[in-house]
């Protein structure tokens, strides 16, 4: 793995700041629970991953969530939601990056975004069942939901929400990618030279 140069570090910092700002511009979708919010903060992380590699995408996701935690805090006192957002971002960005590296076309990026969206939705459903929802109930000192209630929430709320969120992010990213593809490829070539 190559070390990140100064240009990459500055770019990661700028993309992290942009990602944090996009994270603040979140909004709920009416049929889903109020705590599920859509934002487009994974787009800069995906750009960072494509240009500078997967570590850069992870760093953008990490820095965005650290900034948001220190600026807005957390209802639980611990960053459970930020941890969930970080993991969801990684589960979207990394599969998208690796599939795109194999296909390297616009159609390949579309396939990669679908794979990233499905991967994020499915794995976040599993993590919500076993880790995230139990952590919320523990730190908020709420009564735990039954297994049936948890499964219902995941199947009717969290899974479809993450699929829709992935689709929204994919559409926004593809609009940018089709316009910026030449520049992104030039930056990626420059990075590897």
Automatic annotation (TrEMBL):
It is found in: Cell membrane. The keyword Membrane applies. It is a multi-pass membrane protein. Keywords: Cell membrane, Membrane, Plasmid, Transmembrane, Transmembrane helix, Transport. The chain crosses the membrane at residues 6-28, 40-60, 80-100, 112-133, 153-177. Pfam families: ECF_trnsprt. Its main location: membrane. Belongs to the prokaryotic riboflavin transporter (P-RFT) (TC 2.A.87) family. Probably a riboflavin-binding protein that interacts with the energy-coupling factor (ECF) ABC-transporter complex. PANTHER family: RIBOFLAVIN TRANSPORTER RIBU. This is Riboflavin transporter.
């Amino acid at each position: 793995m190559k070390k990140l140069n100064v240009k990459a570090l500055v770019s990661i910092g700028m993309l992290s700041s942009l990602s944090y700002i996009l994270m603040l511009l979140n909004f709920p979708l009416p049929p889903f629970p109020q705590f599920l919010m859509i934002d487009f903060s994974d787009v800069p992380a995906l750009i960072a991953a494509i240009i500078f590699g997967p570590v850069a995408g992870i760093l953008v996701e990490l820095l965005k969530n650290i900034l948001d935690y220190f600026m807005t805090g957390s209802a639980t006192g611990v960053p459970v939601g930020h941890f969930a957002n970080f993991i969801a971002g990684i589960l979207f960005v990394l599969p998208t990056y690796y599939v795109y590296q194999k296909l390297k076309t616009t159609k390949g990026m579309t396939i990669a975004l679908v794979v990233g969206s499905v991967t994020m939705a499915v794995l976040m459903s599993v993590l919500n069942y076993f880790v995230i929802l139990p952590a919320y109930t523990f730190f908020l000192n709420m009564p735990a939901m039954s297994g049936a209630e948890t499964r219902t929430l995941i199947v009717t709320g969290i899974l479809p929400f993450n699929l829709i969120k992935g689709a929204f992010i994919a559409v926004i990213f593809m609009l940018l990618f089709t316009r910026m593809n030449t520049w992104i490829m030039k930056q990626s070539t420059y990075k590897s030279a």
